[in-house]
Design brief:
With about 150 residues, this protein is mainly beta. Helix content is about 5%, strand content about 50%. The protein binds zinc ion.
Length: about 150
Amino acid sequence: MPSPFDMALETYNVPPSDDRVTIVCLYCEKAQEVSRKALSVTCRFCNKSLKLEEIRFKEYQARRSIETCGVVTVEKKGHVVTDKIICGGLIVRGKLKVTGDIHSRGPVLVGPEAELRGSITAPSLAVGAGAILEGQYEIGPKPHASEMP
Ligand SMILES: [Zn+2]
């Protein structure tokens, strides 16, 4: 269902073409159009910088935080340790340890034999047989789901 905000976008912007995509800011949750080719943009509402790229981990990596509008993937041989993740979606086939929270705007997929430690907030969660999960889960659409694209 389009929100009043989306309708305003349609009124005031040129019609969307193939090289534009609508993203939702990870921080202020406002929708906006960006170039499909852009790897990062500055939110035009809260001025925070947003990464749009997909991030794929294939080996051990420790990071302070992982923040992207794209999908974060931890491959089978990946082992990621981080304080927090804010992402457009999450796929875990390897090991992921998050000391803080995981906020995913899209579905979280946990493969069989994956290990995931951390608290997850996501619209949906799918877990393969044999996966190890440890943490708290808040799964389901947010109350203001009508603002989503
Ligand atoms: Zn923003």
